[in-house]
Design a protein that fits this description.
This protein is of the alpha/beta class. 43% of the residues lie in helices and 21% in strands. The chain folds into 2 domains: 163 residues, Bordetella uptake gene, domain 1 (D-Maltodextrin-Binding Protein, domain 2), CATH 3.40.190; 100 residues, D-Maltodextrin-Binding Protein, domain 2, CATH 3.40.190.10.
Amino acid sequence: MTSRRQVLLAVPALAATGFAAGVAAQSNYPQRLVKIVVGNAPGGNDDTISRIVADRLAKEFGQPVIVENRVGASTSIAGAAVAASPPDGHTLLCLIGTGIVQTVLREKPPYQLNSFVPIVGVGGFPLALAVSATAKPKITSFQELIAAARAGDGITYASGGAGTMAHLTSARFLNAVKGKGVNVSYRNNPEGLNSLIGGFTQMMFGSAQEVAALRGEDKLRALAVTSEQRLPNLPDVPTMRELGFPTINPTLWYGYVAPVGTPPAIVSKLADAITRAVRDPAFQNRFKPLSFVEDIKTGETLTAFINGEAARWKEVIVENKIQLE
């Protein structure tokens, strides 16, 4: 018969065995396929960036690393799926600005920011303020845009949906210039830009990458960029700072997070590997000419940045009484 003393002595032995197994599992990570969940459809910046990162991680880890697109609810479906996943480092989320905003925009969000442990922020694309080249009345300059926003009922502006960077940045801009405007929501940013090209809306804050590719005399006019310095693919376009609006400086930001409870050793390994992927010449040569600005953040610095973004955009949401449509 086993004595009580034998049972009590066995407990720390079992705990030590479990701890050793946990350490071994972390040192052997990853042990199977790793999945990066993206909240938008294939072809977008978050999807493209994540696929390049995934290819590099697969080579480094010796395990398959794939991208899974979980589209819907302004990336909330993807966020909820990852938040509910096992915290073992085999399911990651590509977190973007819109995903952060959902936690303060929705009355009952399907996840909170503390549902995740931040891994690494990699940087992003500045926005470009674009106006339609075909919409009436014709707008050809920054001052003409301000005048139109202040006249009558103001202007119409396109976005990829309530709470997206295009929507919130436009609202913030109109407040800054004491203008008015009506948000016309589309399913995504490309549809919003197409409405601008067609003359159905007058203004949009789109990705600088997208605006640079689409602008032309019969399409879009780029009036400003939100970067600190002028961009290589839009060298003739002034910054918002140059135009007197230094605080209108958002970026389409990208980072990676894992379910809360993911072991620190795994988080650190992922952060180092993803940083190497972003600094790889193949990544840099592809995205830097498109105005991608590298901005590596990890640990407490990344946590502070994410929380700061949530507070920043909550202020805009409250000030403008923005609600989901």
